[in-house]
Amino acid sequence: MTMAELDLRRVYGAYPTGVAAVAGLIGGRPVGLAASSFVPVSLDPPLVSVCMAHTSTTWPLLRDLPHIGISVLGAHQEETGRRLGARGGDRFAGVPWRSTANGCVLIEDAAAWYDCTVEQQFRSGDHDIVVLRVHDLDAAYGTPPLVFHASRFHQLR
Ligand SMILES: Cc1cc2nc3c(=O)[nH]c(=O)nc-3n(C[C@H](O)[C@H](O)[C@H](O)COP(=O)(O)O)c2cc1C
């Protein structure tokens, strides 16, 4: 990594985000990844977005699914965030999840969840900006979110 890339990672990381699980059912099994790039975009129509790296091997599997689940992880789900963001291994081992009738994979006890379809994708540098339409959603307002800041997981204090 060049110095410029290191600086970008360090300074981008100064902006705190949540951690979302982006996941769907493929051949009856859960497939997904962690994303700190999740952002709500529009109320009417209801749209949210994530940025997916061109190096991701999981996004090409998810992007053609009819529906994709997005779960906003709770503060108690740091281990789940680590697992879903790891490069190898079985990401869903020990992670409680459920699937919906239309094939979304949602993480149990998450702070919020969305049932989405891909609306638009834009190539932007080394990522795709993916805009998703929201079809269903809910939040557990008593559950504080997991926070990602400076390359580390945090809990709100
Ligand atoms: C906290 C955290 C947030 C992440 N956010 C993103 C993200 O927004 N976009 C992305 O493309 N990858 C993100 N990643 C990396 C993916 O979760 C995953 O590790 C990466 O896509 C490589 O796995 P894959 O080849 O299975 O896609 C994040 C990882 C972690 C640990």
How would you summarize the topology of this molecule?
Elements: H1 3-12, E1 17-18, E2 20-26, E3 29-35, E4 39-42, E5 47-53, H2 59-62, E6 68-72, H3 78-85, E7 97-99, E8 105-107, E9 112-124, E10 127-139, E11 146-149, E12 152-155
This protein binds flavin mononucleotide.
Flavin mononucleotide binds next to β3, β5 and α3.
Domain Flavin reductase like: 12-155
Keywords: Oxidoreductase
GO molecular function: FMN binding; riboflavin reductase (NADPH) activity
Key traits:
157 residues, mainly beta, Pnp Oxidase, Chain A, seven-stranded antiparallel β-sheet, three-stranded antiparallel β-sheet, 46% strand, binds flavin mononucleotide, Flavin_Rdtase-like_dom, riboflavin reductase (NADPH) activity, oxidoreductase, FMN binding, Flavin reductase
Task: Describe it.
A hairpin with a 2-residue loop joins strand 9 and strand 10. The chain contains 3 helices and 12 strands. The chain has a single domain (18-148), classed as Electron Transport, Fmn-binding Protein, Chain A (Pnp Oxidase, Chain A, Roll). The model has no long low-confidence stretch (mean pLDDT 96). The chain is mainly beta. Flavin mononucleotide (FMN) binds next to strand 3, strand 5 and helix 3.
What's the quick description here?
By secondary structure, the protein is mainly β. 14% of the residues lie in helices and 46% in strands.
